[in-house]
Amino acid sequence: MRKVFQLENLDCANCAAKIEQAISKIAGVSKASVSFMAQRLEIEAEGDIEALMPLVKKEIARVEPDCEIVE
C-alpha cells in the first residue's frame, strides 16, 4: 500500500532527509520519501499505513517539532 501526505512547516532539506531516514526504520515501512520542495511525504508499507501513523507522527515531531502532517 502506498499513501502520500502533505507536510506543513518543514523548514530545511536536511530535516527532510532525517525524517525520511527515521520513518524508513519503522517496522512495516518498506519505503519512505520526503520531498522538501513539494512539502510531501510518501510512504509505502506492507500493511495498513493508518496503523503506522502514530509512529510516523512521533518520528516527525522528534526530528522537526514544528512540522505536521496535513490530513
What does this structure look like?
It is a single chain. The chain is of the alpha+beta class. Helix content is 38%, strand content 32%. The protein has helices at 13-24, 49-63; strands at 2-8, 29-35, 40-45, 68-70. Helix 1 crosses helix 2 (49-63). It is globular. The mean pLDDT is 95.
Features:
Alpha-Beta Plaits, 32% strand, 71 residues, single chain, 4 strands
Count every helix, treating DSSP H or I runs of 4 or more residues as helices: 2
Total of domains? 1
Total strands: the figure is: 4
> Could you estimate the helical fraction of the residues in percent?
25-40%
Give the N-to-C terminal Cα separation. Answer: 18 Å
Average pLDDT: 95
Portion of residues in beta strands equals 25-35%
Uncertain residue ranges:
none
Coarse morphology? globular
Radius of gyration: 11 Å
Q: Give the spatial strand order of the biggest sheet.
A: 2-3-1-4
Q: Which sequence of SSEs, written as H and E, runs from N to C? A: EHEEHE
CATH class: Alpha Beta
Class from helix and strand fractions: alpha+beta
Largest sheet: number of strands, sense, barrel closure? 4 strands, antiparallel
CATH architecture identity: 2-Layer Sandwich
CATH topology name: Alpha-Beta Plaits
Give a short summary of the structure.
The chain has 71 residues and is of the alpha+beta class. The chain contains 2 helices and 4 strands.
Describe the SSE topology:
Elements: E1 2-8, H1 13-24, E2 29-35, E3 40-45, H2 49-63, E4 68-70
Antiparallel strand pairs: 1-3, 1-4, 2-3
